[in-house]
Design brief:
By secondary structure, the protein is mostly helical. Helix content is 64%, strand content 0%.
Length: 266
């Protein structure tokens, strides 16, 4: 017998080690029979809704509900004037100074007077004091919202520089501030109802790719909308598909009328 056969024989003669579980190995049927284990059948949707509603009704508390809707009722009694007031005043002045030029720029983006942008930066923070839940956030509009508001404002709002003869007969005349106020009121009403319904969890459906793509696309629109102001040229407003290339074509046609002083200050 050669060496290889001897090694194979010794290998098969070795005692096979097995793990000791302290009990016999059980199948799912043995487990159900021995321990009376029964797998629950999947509950139906109406049963889930019923159990969820029952749990919410049992755990409902009026003070907790009020503090969740109006958070100032929860944190204001705990507010310390000695330790927090000075820091809040400094941060408030800093954000206010920053909001002045930003509000004016966003007002121009939205197609309304610059002073309206300052009002938009002023009033939301007063509401956020009552309803806000984040102490480290600066409330107010931003470029993407301003551009989205500018679309109905430009389409439905009358140009303040246009004379009465440029308006069609029988067409209702709305100022741009009226259209902007109507749009913001409707959006605020929808957001208020969504807040009462606790629909913030829907933001989890928006993937990072979708948010990043939306942000990058909006940045191109913001840059394009500001080029005419940087150059100081007057161009025809473009809308619809392909408005970005058409806007650059209009800028190229009027590039000779660039205001050098405006360009230098910009």
């Amino acid at each position: 017998m050669d060496n290889e056969e001897e090694e194979d024989l010794l290998y098969h003669q070795k005692q096979v080690k097995r793990a000791d579980l302290g009990r016999n190995v059980l199948t799912l049927e043995d487990l159900s029979e021995k321990y009376h284990f029964q797998q629950k059948s999947p509950s139906k949707y109406h049963e889930k809704i019923k159990s969820y509603a029952k749990k919410e009704c049992q755990e409902f508390s009026c003070p907790n509900f009020l503090t969740s809707v109006v958070p100032i009722l929860g944190w204001l009694p705990k507010y310390s004037l000695k330790t927090d007031l000075v820091n809040d005043l400094v941060s408030g002045f800093t954000v206010a100074i920053m909001h002045i030029p930003q509000g004016m720029a966003y007002g121009l983006l939205a197609g309304v007077d610059p002073v309206v942008g300052i009002y938009t930066a002023f009033f939301p923070v007063l509401i956020y004091v009552l309803l806000g839940t984040m102490p480290h956030v600066s409330m107010g509009t931003f470029a993407v919202i301003s551009i989205m508001v500018s679309k109905p404002v430009m389409e439905l709002g009358a140009d303040p520089l246009a004379g009465p003869g440029n308006l069609e007969a029988g067409q209702p005349v709305y100022s741009r501030i009226q259209v902007a106020a109507a749009v913001t009121f409707c959006v605020g009403l929808v957001q208020f109802l969504a807040g009462l319904g606790r629909l913030g969890f829907l933001s989890m459906v928006l993937t990072d790719t979708l948010v990043s793509a939306f942000t990058v696309g909006a940045s191109f629109h913001v840059i394009t909308s500001q080029i005419k102001h940087i150059l100081g040229v007057s161009i025809t407003r473009q809308s619809g598909p392909g408005n970005l290339p058409l806007t650059y074509i209009e800028i190229g046609k009027n590039i000779a009328t660039t205001n050098l002083f405006t360009l230098g200050i910009s």
